[in-house]
Each structure stands twice: as structure tokens, then as C-alpha cells.
Amino acid sequence: LVTDRPFPACRLFAIKDATFRFPDQRGWQPVKERIFSCYENVSYPLQTELPLDSMLPLVSESCLGDLVSISLNPGTFVCNYIYFWSLHAFQRASEWNYSLFVHVPSLERASPEKQIHFAYHVIRTIAETMQ
Questions:
Q1: If 0-12 CB within 10 Å is exposed, 13-18 middle and 19+ buried, where does residue 95 land?
Q2: What is the pLDDT of residues 39-73, one digit of tens each?
Q3: Within a 10 A sphere around the Cβ of 52, how many other Cβ atoms?
Q4: Cα–Cα distance, 105 to 5 (Å, whole number)
Q5: How far from chain centre, in Å, is Cα 98?
Q6: Rounded distance, CA 58 to CA 78, Å?
Q7: Going by DSSP bridges, is the β-strand pair 69-71/9-11 parallel, antiparallel, or unpaired?
Q8: What is the pTM for the complete model shown?
Q9: Which of 20, 60, 73, 83 could make an SS bond with 14 (beta carbons 3.0 to 4.6 A apart)?
């Protein structure tokens, strides 16, 4: 959930460290902990292989011109942690890394209907792009 913008943001990459500004629901609050030890000597983030630069204009156009941005900020809470796990799993499972994390606006900023419309167009655009 992104509360400061009225439009979605697709994350390009995730970093290998877990740092939470506040504890999660179980009380865990890591600070610069490696998510996976196999990335100990890796200095770069994991990145999606989806062609976001060419996909997102198509999604924006399909969503009646609503802005859809690429997020270059991996964040530090559960979002980065989940996205890193997903990117790691897809890289290990195949030669392609088709994982995507999308921050959506709050329901006060974008109605459920608008968010469903957006999700549909993201999935459709990914399917059409990857054919």
C-alpha cells in the first residue's frame, strides 16, 4: 500500500538486506540482516526481468491515462522482504525472473473498481508481452 500517491508504483528491484523501521506482527525487527546467506558477497540488488519501461506505458494507456510509475526505492519493510523472496525463488526456478511487486494506492485515493481495473491490465500486459 502506498499512501502518499494516487497511482500505483511497480518495483524494479529488491535489496538483499532486511531492515524494518518497526516490528512486524510477530515482533521481529531485523536491522541489515541478510534475507538469504547465499547473497553474502553480492553487492547488487535482485531485479525483475519484466520490461517495465515498455510495459507500463501500455498499462497507463489502458487505464485511461492514469500514471503508473517504476519505483526505484525498494523500501525497508515487509514489501522489500517479500519481493526479494519472490525474485530469489523465480531466479532459482527458471532462467526468467518474471516477478513483480506493485504498490497500490489506498482505497481513499483509488476506488476498488479502479484498482481491479489496473490489476487486470497489468496481468494482461504481462501476458501479451511475454508471448
A1: exposed
A2: 777 777 889 889 999 988 888 877 755 678 888 88
A3: 20
A4: 6
A5: 11
A6: 29
A7: parallel
A8: 0.82
A9: 83
